[in-house]
Amino acid sequence: MAIELPPLPYDRAALEPHMSAETLDFHYGKHHKTYVDNANKMIEGTEFADMPLVDIIRRSQGALFNNVAQVWNHTFFWNCMKPNGGGEPTGKLADAINLAFGDFATFKEEFAKTCIGTFGSGWGWLVQRPDGSLALVSTSNANTPIAGEDTPLLTCDVWEHAYYIDYRNARPKFVEAFWNLVNWDFVASNMK
User: Fold this and answer.
1) Where is the Manganese/iron superoxide dismutase C-terminal domain (predicted)?
2) Cys-Cys crosslink for 101: which of 96, 107, 120, 148, Cβ 3.0 to 4.6 Å?
């Protein structure tokens, strides 16, 4: 089964002014597509050829892991955003955030610190632990919570290719803009 580049859940200009169509042309159209293309070349004719993507992630290592994990991470990232997103979560998700962090403002501050403080290239995550509690996780490079026991709820891509066109080297400005795009319905739908 070939790994496919899923369509974006919105038009490539739909996240402007927070994320430009040019950024999506490169980030989705070049970087994400390259991970898909590389992964397909690597699994062809191997034991991984007919496995679902998550199974390949959990059983692979090295270059194959890096490419398949980046396919999954990016697909998840696109869904964490939507046009006219942002605001604050409600319901069960809001309750869980308040329980874990005290209030939304503290969560937002701590999530931003996690993203900004990720050394080099990587990802900031809000995850749900197996016991149901929420936590923040920073992963380097292609690492992803789905390789372990945590359930990803929200991610922010802090590889430079996520923000260099719109924000140059200003990761904090990118993370600040990200809050205007968060798709809280998608985040809540990931809770167990």
Assistant:
1) 89-189
2) 107
DSSP secondary structure letter of residue 148: S
pLDDT tens digits for range 41-72: 999 999 999 999 999 999 999 999 999 999 99
Q: What are phi and psi of 157, to 5 degrees?
A: -75, 120
In whole angstroms, give the CA distance from residue 65 to residue 72.
11
Kindly report the pTM of this predicted structure.
Answer: 0.98
Element spanning 41, H or E? helix 33-43
**Minimal CA–CA distance to 10: which of 185, 183, 176?**
183
Token pair 């050829």 in the structure block, residue: 49
Amino acid, single-letter form, for residue 112: A
Our CA angle for 45, 1, 146, nearest 5°, is: 100
State the average pLDDT for the chain.
Answer: 98
- Per DSSP, helices labelled H in 52-122 are 53-59, 62-79, 91-101, 104-116
Which amino acid is residue 110, in one-letter code?
E
Q: Which two tokens stand for residue 33?
A: 């597509």
Which structure tokens are listed for 167? 């924000």
Beta bridge partners of residue 136, listed in sequence order:
126
Contact 124, 155 (CB under 8 A): yes
